[in-house]
Write a structure and sequence with these properties.
Blueprint: H1 2-8, H2 12-17, E1 19-23, E2 29-34, E3 37-42, E4 47-51, H3 53-64, H4 69-80, H5 86-101, E5 105-109
Antiparallel strand pairs: 1-5, 2-3, 3-4
Helix pairs in contact: 3-4, 4-5
Length: 110
Protein backbone atom coordinates (compact mmCIF):
# COMPACT_ATOMS: atom_id res chain seq x y z
CA UNK A 1 0.00 0.00 0.00
CA UNK A 2 2.77 2.44 0.83
CA UNK A 3 4.31 2.09 -2.63
CA UNK A 4 0.95 2.80 -4.30
CA UNK A 5 0.54 5.98 -2.26
CA UNK A 6 4.03 7.12 -3.07
CA UNK A 7 3.50 6.47 -6.79
CA UNK A 8 0.20 8.33 -6.91
CA UNK A 9 1.69 11.30 -5.11
CA UNK A 10 -1.01 11.13 -2.43
CA UNK A 11 -0.14 12.07 1.10
CA UNK A 12 -1.98 13.02 4.25
CA UNK A 13 -0.50 16.53 3.94
CA UNK A 14 -2.28 16.97 0.57
CA UNK A 15 -5.70 16.53 2.19
CA UNK A 16 -4.80 18.73 5.15
CA UNK A 17 -3.97 21.60 2.82
CA UNK A 18 -7.48 21.48 1.37
CA UNK A 19 -9.25 21.82 4.73
CA UNK A 20 -10.61 25.22 5.77
CA UNK A 21 -12.32 26.50 8.89
CA UNK A 22 -15.76 28.05 8.30
CA UNK A 23 -18.41 29.52 10.53
CA UNK A 24 -21.11 26.92 11.21
CA UNK A 25 -23.80 27.37 8.58
CA UNK A 26 -26.46 25.22 10.27
CA UNK A 27 -27.25 27.87 12.88
CA UNK A 28 -27.64 31.61 13.31
CA UNK A 29 -24.85 33.21 15.27
CA UNK A 30 -25.24 36.66 16.79
CA UNK A 31 -22.17 38.38 18.16
CA UNK A 32 -21.29 41.59 19.88
CA UNK A 33 -17.87 43.09 20.59
CA UNK A 34 -17.13 46.03 22.83
CA UNK A 35 -14.15 47.19 24.86
CA UNK A 36 -12.13 44.16 23.76
CA UNK A 37 -14.83 41.71 24.86
CA UNK A 38 -16.73 39.44 22.44
CA UNK A 39 -19.73 37.23 23.03
CA UNK A 40 -21.50 34.97 20.53
CA UNK A 41 -25.07 33.73 20.89
CA UNK A 42 -25.93 30.45 19.12
CA UNK A 43 -29.68 30.24 18.45
CA UNK A 44 -29.58 26.48 17.82
CA UNK A 45 -28.12 25.56 21.20
CA UNK A 46 -29.42 28.68 23.00
CA UNK A 47 -25.89 29.13 24.40
CA UNK A 48 -23.95 32.35 24.77
CA UNK A 49 -20.18 32.00 24.44
CA UNK A 50 -17.60 34.42 25.82
CA UNK A 51 -14.60 34.57 23.47
CA UNK A 52 -11.20 35.41 24.89
CA UNK A 53 -9.05 37.67 22.63
CA UNK A 54 -7.47 34.89 20.52
CA UNK A 55 -10.82 33.15 20.00
CA UNK A 56 -12.46 36.48 19.15
CA UNK A 57 -9.77 37.24 16.57
CA UNK A 58 -10.19 33.80 14.97
CA UNK A 59 -13.98 34.20 14.92
CA UNK A 60 -13.74 37.68 13.36
CA UNK A 61 -11.28 36.40 10.74
CA UNK A 62 -13.73 33.64 9.81
CA UNK A 63 -16.56 36.17 9.56
CA UNK A 64 -14.70 37.65 6.60
CA UNK A 65 -13.62 34.40 4.92
CA UNK A 66 -12.91 30.72 5.44
CA UNK A 67 -9.29 30.00 6.31
CA UNK A 68 -6.95 27.11 6.94
CA UNK A 69 -4.90 26.94 10.13
CA UNK A 70 -1.82 28.51 8.49
CA UNK A 71 -3.86 31.52 7.33
CA UNK A 72 -5.41 31.89 10.79
CA UNK A 73 -1.97 31.82 12.43
CA UNK A 74 -0.72 34.53 10.05
CA UNK A 75 -3.85 36.67 10.38
CA UNK A 76 -4.21 36.58 14.15
CA UNK A 77 -0.46 36.93 14.62
CA UNK A 78 -0.52 40.11 12.56
CA UNK A 79 -3.64 41.48 14.29
CA UNK A 80 -2.47 40.74 17.81
CA UNK A 81 1.21 41.57 17.24
CA UNK A 82 2.34 37.98 17.87
CA UNK A 83 5.01 35.99 16.10
CA UNK A 84 3.48 33.28 13.88
CA UNK A 85 5.55 30.56 15.54
CA UNK A 86 4.84 27.02 16.78
CA UNK A 87 3.49 28.32 20.09
CA UNK A 88 0.89 30.46 18.31
CA UNK A 89 0.09 27.54 15.98
CA UNK A 90 -0.61 25.30 18.99
CA UNK A 91 -2.77 28.01 20.58
CA UNK A 92 -4.76 28.50 17.34
CA UNK A 93 -5.22 24.73 17.02
CA UNK A 94 -6.51 24.52 20.61
CA UNK A 95 -8.91 27.44 20.14
CA UNK A 96 -10.27 26.17 16.81
CA UNK A 97 -10.86 22.78 18.44
CA UNK A 98 -12.84 24.46 21.26
CA UNK A 99 -14.83 26.63 18.82
CA UNK A 100 -15.57 23.53 16.75
CA UNK A 101 -16.64 21.56 19.83
CA UNK A 102 -18.97 24.45 20.75
CA UNK A 103 -20.50 24.22 17.26
CA UNK A 104 -19.48 27.73 16.22
CA UNK A 105 -17.08 26.68 13.44
CA UNK A 106 -16.60 23.62 11.26
CA UNK A 107 -13.71 22.29 9.24
CA UNK A 108 -14.44 21.14 5.71
CA UNK A 109 -12.69 20.87 2.38
CA UNK A 110 -12.19 24.02 0.36
Amino acid sequence: MTAAWALSGWSNRDTELQMRWHLASDRKLYWRSWDGETVVYDDLSDDTHYLEPLAAEIFETLLARAADTDALVESVGRSLGLSPDQELRRAVAAVTARLCQAGLIVERSA
